[in-house]
């Protein structure tokens, strides 16, 4: 039997799948991990964990289905992250994670002042935010000169795995387009003047597309993983984009909505749309562009409430369903880790309004689910105002296993969501890209055959007025509490 291996490094776990040529999952496994938060606003991870977990996963999957001939390997990972390595390919410091890490505020302000918002947007598509990997590179250069003096290369989780497997030094265009302001989105290349200004010590990685073959598994990597030497490995890309591939939500007019530790949205089109409150990026494939957004918390918020209340998810979901629409007068802002889009406010914080002594943990959990749904609606409305043509919405990720959360998002947004048969995530998309890369011309697999749509979630029209009013309050609550919340964020940083 022939198959492909797909591995994705996420925020809270690394997942792997072994997939047959027809898309059937032969085996899957997960390795849980945690990120480090050494200071307020910092979110880091030891990159050694990525390779160790990849090796362990590959060995387990191969042992589980030993008669499978692995014909290609797909890699994927959270991002945009900044992993800097020295001349011996050893990390000079822990990897700095994506927009949930907000340490580069000063660099964003300085770079924006030096280059100008209009020019940054013209070259890269987006204004600089906590998602901008280029600003985090500048942070290392300014704040950790000893580490910077040893840095020679830039990696992200997917490209690090590809490098450890093949020796190739590559980065996909999609990830590169989030290394703002170092990438020229219209010409699909590094922007040399700004690379030299802010990353002069680093060798620019060779740019390829996510599904391109980066190289072949080396003898050393084969010994470490059990994958046969010479097996092709794709370049890979950021997990949200790989997840969109896993469900076929990467065509013009598609919106992928990913339910995970954070919530992510990707609208795909052919034109470069620019708006200061969202992220403009290259697509996973040549000729496509994305308008993307992300909530800093979603699953992370529900997990926080689970741990805080010492209840399990089935209990909380049952109690939230009993609470009913509107959570009995509670309204929550889900900004417990700052917020990314569309408010782009790293100093935003969580707010729970309307609490009384009569409210229960079920009300709180319902309010948390509604808060993430209100955040999704805020992003979708901002995308459409920027010109995004959203004709089809596909829901993916671990959160799709809970029907209540899906229904609340559809009710709050008024949108129909399509749920595919397989929602295992980016590891499945990575396996598909690998299969596509080695498929015979004209005989590549189709994701619609691998992963057909299994369910459609439709909004309840009876709840439209209730959630329209709640959304209005949601927007006004942020504006009304922003000044006090920013003052409290400053106190938290000082503490």
From TrEMBL:
<dbReference type="InterPro" id="IPR018485">
    <property type="entry name" value="FGGY_C"/>
</dbReference>
<dbReference type="GO" id="GO:0016301">
    <property type="term" value="F:kinase activity"/>
</dbReference>
<dbReference type="InterPro" id="IPR018484">
    <property type="entry name" value="FGGY_N"/>
</dbReference>
<dbReference type="Pfam" id="PF02782">
    <property type="entry name" value="FGGY_C"/>
</dbReference>
<dbReference type="InterPro" id="IPR050406">
    <property type="entry name" value="FGGY_Carb_Kinase"/>
</dbReference>
<dbReference type="InterPro" id="IPR000577">
    <property type="entry name" value="Carb_kinase_FGGY"/>
</dbReference>
<dbReference type="Pfam" id="PF00370">
    <property type="entry name" value="FGGY_N"/>
</dbReference>
<keyword id="KW-0119">Carbohydrate metabolism</keyword>
<comment type="similarity">
    <text>Belongs to the FGGY kinase family.</text>
</comment>
<protein>
    <submittedName>
        <fullName>Sugar kinase</fullName>
    </submittedName>
</protein>
<dbReference type="InterPro" id="IPR043129">
    <property type="entry name" value="ATPase_NBD"/>
</dbReference>
<keyword id="KW-0418">Kinase</keyword>
<dbReference type="InterPro" id="IPR018483">
    <property type="entry name" value="Carb_kinase_FGGY_CS"/>
</dbReference>
<feature type="domain" description="Carbohydrate kinase FGGY C-terminal">
    <location>
        <begin position="256"/>
        <end position="435"/>
    </location>
</feature>
<keyword id="KW-0859">Xylose metabolism</keyword>
<keyword id="KW-0808">Transferase</keyword>
<feature type="domain" description="Carbohydrate kinase FGGY N-terminal">
    <location>
        <begin position="5"/>
        <end position="241"/>
    </location>
</feature>
């Amino acid at each position: 039997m022939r198959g492909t291996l797909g591995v994705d490094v996420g925020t809270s776990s690394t997942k792997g799948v072994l997939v047959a040529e027809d898309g059937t999952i032969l085996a899957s496994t997960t390795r849980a991990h945690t990120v480090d938060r050494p200071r307020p606003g910092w979110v880091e991870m030891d990159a050694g964990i990525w390779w160790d977990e990849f090796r362990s996963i590959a060995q387990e999957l191969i042992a589980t289905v030993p008669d499978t001939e692995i014909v290609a390997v797909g890699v994927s990972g959270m991002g945009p992250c900044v992993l800097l390595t020295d001349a011996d390919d050893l990390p000079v410091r822990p990897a700095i994670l994506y927009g949930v890490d907000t340490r580069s505020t000063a660099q964003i302000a300085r770079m924006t002042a030096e280059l100008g918002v209009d020019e940054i947007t013209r070259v890269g598509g987006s204004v600089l935010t906590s998602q901008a990997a280029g600003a985090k590179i500048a942070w290392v250069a300014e704040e950790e000169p000893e580490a910077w003096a040893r840095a020679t290369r830039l990696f992200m989780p997917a490209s690090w795995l590809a490098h450890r497997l093949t020796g190739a030094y590559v980065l996909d265009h999609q990830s590169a387009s989030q290394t703002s302001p170092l990438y020229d989105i219209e010409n699909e290349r590094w922007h040399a003047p700004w690379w030299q200004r802010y990353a002069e010590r680093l060798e620019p990685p060779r740019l390829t597309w996510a599904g391109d073959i980066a190289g072949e598994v080396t003898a050393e990597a084969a010994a470490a993983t059990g994958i046969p030497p010479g097996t092709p490995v794709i370049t890979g890309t950021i997990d949200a984009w790989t997840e969109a591939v896993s469900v076929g939500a990467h065509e013009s007019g598609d919106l992928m909505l990913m339910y995970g530790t954070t919530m992510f949205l990707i609208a795909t089109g052919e034109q470069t749309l620019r708006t200061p409150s969202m992220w403009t990026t290259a697509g996973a494939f040549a000729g496509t562009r994305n308008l993307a957004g992300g909530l800093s918390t979603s699953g992370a918020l529900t997990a926080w409430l689970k741990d805080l209340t010492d209840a399990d998810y089935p209990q909380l979901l049952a109690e939230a369903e009993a609470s009913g629409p509107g959570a009995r007068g509670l309204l929550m802002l889900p900004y417990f880790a700052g917020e990314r889009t569309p408010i782009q406010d790293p100093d935003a914080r969580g707010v729970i309004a309307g609490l009384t002594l009569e409210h229960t943990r079920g009300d709180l959990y319902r309010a948390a689910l509604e808060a993430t749904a209100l955040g999704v609606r805020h992003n979708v409305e901002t995308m459409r105002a920027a010109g995004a043509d959203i004709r089809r919405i596909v829901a993916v990720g671990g959160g799709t296993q809970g029907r209540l959360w899906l229904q609340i998002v559809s009710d709050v947004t008024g949108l129909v969501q399509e749920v595919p048969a397989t929602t295992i995530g980016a590891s499945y998309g990575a396996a598909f890209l690998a299969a596509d890369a080695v498929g015979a011309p004209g005989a590549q697999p189709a994701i619609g055959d691998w992963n057909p749509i299994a369910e459609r979630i439709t909004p309840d029209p009876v709840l439209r007025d209730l959630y329209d009013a709640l959304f209005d309050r949601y927007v006004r609550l942020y504006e009304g509490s922003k000044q006090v919340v920013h003052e409290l964020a400053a106190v938290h940083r000082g503490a």
